Amino acid sequence: MQDPQGAHATAAPASHSDASLEPVEFEVERYHHWKVAYDGPIAKVTMAVDPNAPLREGYELKLNSYDLGVDIELADVVRRMRFEHPEVRVVVLSSGSDRVFCAGANIHMLGASTHAWKVNFCKFTNETRCEIEDATDASQQIWVAACNGTTAGGGYELALACEEIYLQDDGSSAVSLPEVPLLGVLPGTGGLTRLVDKRKVRRDRADVFSTTAEGIRGKKAVQWNLVDAIYPRSKFDEKVLERAKALVATASKELPGGERKGVVLGKLAPEKRANGRRYRHVDLSWDKATRVAKLVVKGPTAEDVALVEKGGEAMRQAGSDVWSLRAWRELDDALLHLRVNHQDIGMVLVRTEGDPATVLAHDAALARVRDHWYAREILLHMARVLRRFDNTSRSFFALGDRGTAFAGCLLELALAADRFYMLDDEDAKVRVGVSELEEGALPMHTGLTRLQARFLGEPSKLEELVGRRDLLDPETADEAGLVTVRLDEIDWDDDLRIAIEERASLSPDALTGMEQNLRFPGPETPDSKIYARLSAWQNWIFIRPNATGPEGALTLYGRPERPQFDWRRV
Amino acid sequence: MQDPQGAHATAAPASHSDASLEPVEFEVERYHHWKVAYDGPIAKVTMAVDPNAPLREGYELKLNSYDLGVDIELADVVRRMRFEHPEVRVVVLSSGSDRVFCAGANIHMLGASTHAWKVNFCKFTNETRCEIEDATDASQQIWVAACNGTTAGGGYELALACEEIYLQDDGSSAVSLPEVPLLGVLPGTGGLTRLVDKRKVRRDRADVFSTTAEGIRGKKAVQWNLVDAIYPRSKFDEKVLERAKALVATASKELPGGERKGVVLGKLAPEKRANGRRYRHVDLSWDKATRVAKLVVKGPTAEDVALVEKGGEAMRQAGSDVWSLRAWRELDDALLHLRVNHQDIGMVLVRTEGDPATVLAHDAALARVRDHWYAREILLHMARVLRRFDNTSRSFFALGDRGTAFAGCLLELALAADRFYMLDDEDAKVRVGVSELEEGALPMHTGLTRLQARFLGEPSKLEELVGRRDLLDPETADEAGLVTVRLDEIDWDDDLRIAIEERASLSPDALTGMEQNLRFPGPETPDSKIYARLSAWQNWIFIRPNATGPEGALTLYGRPERPQFDWRRV
Fold first, then answer.
1. pLDDT tens-digit readout, B175-186
2. DSSP for B141-157?
3. Does residue B10 have a pLDDT over 80?
4. Chain A 279-308, CB below 8 Å of chain B: which residues?
5. Pairing label, strands B175-176, B149-152
6. Is B162:B128 a contact under the CB 8 Å cutoff?
7. Concatenated DSSP letters of B235-269
8. Do B512 and A538 touch (CB under 8 A)?
9. How far apart are CA B557 and CA B562, in angstroms?
10. Do strands B65-66 and B104-105 pair parallel, antiparallel, or not at all (unpaired)?
11. Whole-number pLDDT of residue A20
12. Structural contact between residues B124 and B333, judged by C-beta atoms closer than 8 angstroms
């Protein structure tokens, strides 16, 4: 069944747009490119890209190639399934095309895109693939790739995000990463990293594989650990199903509790204004003249806390409108909107509104029910939104002034921000506080909590904060190491105005590079390596004339002319 | 004393050159920019850059700013001291200029340089700073920075490479990283990484610091851990000396044995030909038409082994001509020459000549004497050269054909290469083998051995090889996982020719990015983060119009016009 949600059956807006055109929307009305079928613990997700429904005009999505629109739908499939179909243990991803699993990102779309668009596109597709891995690892929804045809480039990268990869053994179906030999760019959607860091393919074999345009198939693909199994065409579906059933048993061990009845994700449907988007709990506004946006998140109310205190089942029955899901879905949507549709907004001022004590009570209640599958999914979702925040290339200043509630999960926004300004005024009574959720439930891509990342050099400060549940006044918070700049009422407006103006005047590229280096101290993981080592190199290559110049390999792909390279090695 | 070596007193060649001009030489004849004075366990290294002796014409090295020429000398100072002055425990780095410690990389040099030159320059300076840390950590030669004046940009990055940083407290001397606010580029010589990963400065403070052009001084610099201590101007030298003496005591614990009499590093003086450089043990040749170089390293002889078997003292008395030092210094020089002076040579074919059993015997003997300081220094040097190899952005194919000796330390060249081709022929009797040196003495920047990196996914293969000391024939080596492609005599020439031609035809940028991702599987360390996360972002920013376009911040630095930015965030 293509559309699990009756509500999605309305017509999609024709949003074939670059940043300068009609804004891209990340809420999906219906699937153009994916079919999803449920059969108890096994779901089948079929990629059947409609060539005539690209996100923007000017290219056809042939051979199951994808653009941002296809990936927005896939992200929706992955996320929705976790909430709406908690009974699913194994997801079999395959293709509806004959002899083609997926040909990767659409090259004509890439060729026609601006650098910023390409980078945003790659970042989102990377995040979607990390979501697939997160579903597999954390939600016991194991994604497997049933590659029933050619699996090339981004197609193989999609398969690499799955826990297991099965390839049809038909004498022609191969897996390949032809980006380097054919396009002069990298397999930048995690491909190179997952090859050597996730599947741990021997690096010299990875070198051969990544420079062999036609790819590798059959037994050699298994021997090199490029795929987990090959099955003959005649028995492919049967063998995949057999394997899926075996995995269901594995995935069904140690499941979190609660009745496994799904929660339908309701529409966010923000109110769209010329200079902002207003959601129920989130308000995003921007000023094109100053290139500064304001992002406000409203904290939970006492009623929200009371609901969570009733337990996981009560939350599940309340549906997707519970604050901890709704507010964070809204925040996610706002971040994506900002990234793709407002590229020239360089600064975001983040405020949280509400009562910090209520946020702490909320977090405590949520932590108590985390053994319920729905509460657990909500926490995993919050963690993903925060990681999207970490990876958003805008300068974030969190502003803790009158009426703000930077506590618990909302304090994470201040810790994820580049700076946290806090108002120190007797009357304003601004308070912050740490919750149990911050001590492991909301990890960064590096595997650290944001408190650990912050206090890498001051372990004693971390120790003092862990387990502390009282609200801290500005002076105490500052001494505890939570505040970047503490200002009194007199200085607040002027100092902040100057700081914002200064920040907004700096080179956006240098800021992006700086923030990417300062935000992720400490260890790296395969995930963080994708966003650091791999993506940074890909960004560099994307603007090199050898790839995107008039005679570059990406530009000339599919044309009779051969690319002309500047041979200097850098 | 400026020049510790009488041999260095000859005039320097006027090698003010870009890659297209007179080649840059990495052997230093005399110091133009540094003074080195020895006083028992304490050495003083004074940066006194001669403004009128830049490496290339067209800029002055004002305010103790540096170019590649200054850094080549610094690298020589660091390396030479470890071999020639093993009695030194603490190195005090300060400035000979009044009120300026170091202003960082020369901006006019950067502005006038090609992208490839900038990247090569940054890579070399990064390597030199890692050498300073390696001397501190592994050779008990603790470098400390006595910042007796303004310490800006690359100047502070140089200080960050030191174990401790002391700043003059005079009301004006500050440490700063003004790259982002003033130049629109990153502090790319390790600055951002060392700030948050080495000194573990809190990331929000690092954000404030890295966007504050005037920097931070006095007590705040200590509080933020930007420096270790501040001392008043009048007592600066005295306090620094006091601290240095205390560190001498710390560094003198657990020193390796052997008489601490230095070994003078003799000249390499390769024979320079139009299409090559011939050293005693290394031969580098290149073909501009095919853009392919050949790098041959001759293995040790039985006499070389006999010398090592006599022990560390015998080696020390034999001086810098021992194979394990001389051959590896030559290899290092060849790699640097290739990188900077032959940017369009994209492929390097690596061969090792000799008897693999002799290499294994040599490695075993060297491993037995590693408690002697000189043997230990030699091993540390070999490890550094191999890391330079890992970080060289050229495609390396190691060719194990007739007469080659890929065993022990020389097998590391095959493991560091992107591929290893091995000839499987009854008559040729090519053999490879693993030595004890490969099991920890020659680590990569990631902290792994090359065998560990290779077998991340096949731990059983690693177990089988560790401790194994016999020579492996091609089939056995292939089964053991050491060979990428095994070819018989009939296929060798043709298959290899095709592989080389194919490789040499691919986009040099895509290859650089691909190799950087495939060569470093597994964990990352601060060192590897510098070469990955930080350098890749810096490379990207260096070619963005916001930095180096006609209206970019780096281009316009020092001029009245303000940079014009494309505000889109990427």
1. 999 999 999 999
2. -EEEEEE-EEEETHHHH
3. no
4. 291
5. parallel
6. no
7. GHHHHHHHHHHHHHHHHTTT--BS-----------
8. no
9. 8
10. parallel
11. 54
12. no
Which DSSP string corresponds to A286-300? EETTTTEEEEEEE--
User: What residue has token string 């940028």?
Assistant: B509
Closest CA to A396 of A512, A493, A492, A498: A512
Distance from CA of B117 to the nearest CA of A (A): 8
Q: A-B interface: how many C-beta pairs under 8 angstroms?
A: 298
Side by side, which strands form the sheet with B347-353?
Answer: B271-273, B276-278, B282-287, B292-298, B347-353, B395-400, B419-423, B485-487
Convert the pLDDT of each residue in B30-48 to its tens digit.
999 999 999 999 999 999 9
* Interface subset of A 158-217, CB within 8 angstroms of B: 179-181, 183-186, 192-193, 195-197, 199-208, 210-211
Distance CA(A240)–CA(A221), nearest Å, equals: 17
- Nearest residue of A to residue B450 by CA position? A203
Of B196, B419, B570, the CB nearest to A204: B419
> Residue B427 is encoded by which pair of tokens?
């008559």
Task: Using the Cα atoms of residue A78, residue A82, residue A85 and residue A87 in order, give the sign of their dihedral.
Answer: positive
B536 → closest Cβ in A509, A512, A540 = A540
Q: Tokens 């300076």 label which residue?
A: B125
For residue B392, the one-letter residue type is T
Residues 425-454, chain B: which have Cβ within 8 Å of A? 453-454
The ipTM (two decimal places) reads 0.93
Instruction: Using alpha carbons, select from B326, B330, B352 the residue that is nearest to residue B271.
Output: B330
How far from the centroid of its chain's Cα atoms is residue A113's Cα?
21
Query: Could you tell me where the DSSP H helices lie in B284-349?
Result: 302-309, 312-318, 323-341
B474-506 exposure pattern, b = at least 16 Cβ within 10 A, e = fewer: beebbebbbbbbbbeeeebeeebeebbeebbeb
B116, B180, B196 ranked by CB distance to A570: nearest = B116
Average pLDDT, chain B: 94
SS3 at position A565: coil
How close, in Å, is residue A408 to chain B by CA atoms?
A: 19
pLDDT for B16 equals: 35
Nearest CA among A475, A491, A346, A354 for reference residue A409: A354
- Looking at residue A254, its pLDDT comes to 83
Calpha distance A434→A357 (Å, rounded) = 10
Cα within 13 Å of Cα(B79), Cβ side: 25
Q: What angle do CA A115, A116, A117 make, to 5 degrees?
A: 90
Q: Three-state DSSP class for A258?
A: coil
Distance CA A229, CA B262 (A): 59
Q: What span, in angstroms and rounded, lies between the C-alpha atoms of B122 and B142? A: 23
What is the distance between the alpha carbons of residues A337 and A478, in angstroms, rounded to a whole number? 33
Bin A4: left if φ > 0, else alpha if -120 < ψ < 50, else beta: alpha
Residues of A in contact with B185 (CB under 8 A): 507, 510
**A62-98 b/e with 16+ CB inside 10 Å = b?**
ebbbbbbbbbbbbbbbbbbbbbbbbebbbbbbbbebe
Cβ-in-10-Å burial (0-12, 13-18, 19+) of A561 comes to exposed
Nearest CA in chain B to A346: B569
Question: pLDDT band at B570, cuts 50/70/90?
Answer: confident
Q: What backbone torsions phi and psi does residue B99 show, to the nearest 5 degrees?
A: 70, 0
The residues of chain A scoring below 50 in pLDDT are 1-19
Question: Which amino acid type is present at position A363?
Answer: D
| Cα A552 from Cα B411, distance rounded (Å) | 37
Q: Determine the Cα–Cα distance for residues A107 and B558; give it in Å rounded to an integer.
A: 42
Closest CA to B375 of B314, B298, B434, B331: B314
Based on its alpha-carbon atoms, the radius of gyration of chain A, rounded to whole angstroms, reads 24
